[in-house]
């Protein structure tokens, strides 16, 4: 049966004739029986065909966030990690898969390799990816910083700032229309979009008007700064950072785009980055003048997104950052 997105099955009692079959024959028969009963299950279909498995030995829920359900499929060909969403179509997972593939291609920090994205016949969507066995600790922060710097250094775009598709930050749409101007891109597609959403959802004209003033006066913060399009994870907080069983850093659940590398630290208020992290990172990607002054600007985008996702508890933090910048920039 299907219960809350977790697929379970009750083992059938074997017939006497089936007991006379050889082990390989019994496995093939069980596979055909399973596929017949669950004929419209695209996750099982992929695992038992393109996934090169002949038998699914166990399916277990491993929780999930507030948006998707996460499940582990153990098979005779290894384990797979599957996320499902009952209310959102494949476009969200397609954006995630493209981001994972882009990060994977930099050959720097470890990310789960995506295999398949598709629609569920009952509505919603799924993504199948590599299952990574996580280690017991958060790992060495200096290694994480160095590996992240290597990803930013290797992942470049000749098209400018943006990404090939729009994706999501949490469940909020993230607009990634290409732009050659970072300040313009960040103002319009990051701050501007979130401010419009706050006005629409909450009627918050005060934060909208203040935010618009800030958007028009950002350039002094970037004087003398080299901004080049680097591949960003885009949603790097503690819940999206782990290690594999060998202690190597792993990052997951991205909201990728090509942007100013400093924007990667917009979620640092809940990422736990320490001194060793930043020291190692800046050995690969040298710190630019005014980094500390711009850091809150990048946090603002995520505070605004949390305000739009989770409500008024984040509004005061966003307003405080905007007010500080308006005073600093005298606008």
TrEMBL record:
Presence of keyword Iron: no
Keywords annotated in UniProt: ATP-binding, Chloroplast, Kinase, Nucleotide-binding, Plastid, Transferase
Signal peptide: none
E.C. designation(s): 2.7.1.172
Gene3D superfamilies linked to this entry: 3.90.1200.10, Phosphorylase Kinase, domain 1
Catalytic activity: N(6)-(D-erythrulosyl)-L-lysyl-[protein] + ATP = N(6)-(3-O-phospho-D-erythrulosyl)-L-lysyl-[protein] + ADP + H(+); N(6)-D-ribulosyl-L-lysyl-[protein] + ATP = N(6)-(3-O-phospho-D-ribulosyl)-L-lysyl-[protein] + ADP + H(+)
Compartments (UniProt record): Plastid, Chloroplast
GO MF entry, a single one: kinase activity
Chief site of localization: plastid
One Pfam family per UniProt: Fructosamin_kin
Stated role: Initiates a process leading to the deglycation of proteins. Phosphorylates low-molecular-mass and protein-bound erythrulosamines and ribulosamines, but not fructosamines or psicosamines, on the third carbon of the sugar moiety. Protein-bound erythrulosamine 3-phosphates and ribulosamine 3-phosphates are unstable and decompose under physiological conditions.
Name by which UniProt lists this protein: Protein-ribulosamine 3-kinase, chloroplastic
Organism the protein comes from: Dioscorea cayennensis subsp. rotundata
């Amino acid at each position: 049966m299907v219960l809350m997105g977790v697929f379970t099955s009750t083992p059938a009692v074997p017939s006497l004739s089936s007991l006379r079959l050889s082990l390989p024959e019994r496995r093939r028969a069980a596979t055909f029986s399973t596929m017949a009963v669950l004929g419209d299950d695209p996750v099982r279909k992929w695992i038992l065909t393109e996934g090169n498995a002949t038998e699914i030995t166990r399916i277990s829920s491993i929780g999930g966030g507030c948006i998707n359900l996460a499940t582990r499929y153990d098979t005779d060909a290894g384990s797979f990690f599957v996320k499902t969403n009952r209310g959102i179509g494949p476009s969200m997972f397609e954006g995630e898969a493209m981001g994972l593939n882009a990060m994977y291609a930099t050959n720097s920090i470890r990310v789960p390799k995506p295999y398949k994205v598709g629609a569920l016949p009952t509505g919603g969507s799924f993504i199948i990816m590599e299952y990574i066995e996580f280690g017991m600790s958060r790992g060495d922060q200096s290694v994480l910083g160095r590996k992240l710097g290597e990803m930013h250094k290797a992942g470049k775009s000749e098209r400018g700032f943006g990404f090939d598709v729009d994706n999501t930050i949490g469940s909020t749409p993230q607009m990634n229309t290409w732009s050659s101007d970072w300040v313009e891109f960040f103002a319009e597609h990051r701050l501007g979009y979130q401010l419009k959403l706050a006005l629409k959802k909450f009627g918050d004209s005060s934060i909208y008007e203040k935010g618009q003033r800030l958007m028009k006066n950002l350039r002094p913060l970037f004087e003398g700064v080299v901004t080049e399009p680097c591949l960003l994870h885009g949603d790097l907080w503690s819940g999206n950072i782990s290690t594999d069983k060998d202690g190597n850093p792993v990052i997951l659940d991205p909201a990728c785009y090509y942007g100013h590398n400093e924007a990667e630290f917009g979620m640092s208020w809940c990422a736990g980055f320490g001194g060793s992290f930043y020291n190692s990172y800046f050995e690969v990607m040298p710190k630019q003048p005014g980094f500390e002054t711009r850091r809150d600007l990048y946090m603002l985008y995520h505070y605004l997104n949390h305000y739009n996702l989770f409500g008024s508890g984040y509004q005061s933090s966003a307003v405080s950052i905007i007010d500080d910048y308006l005073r600093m920039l005298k606008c």
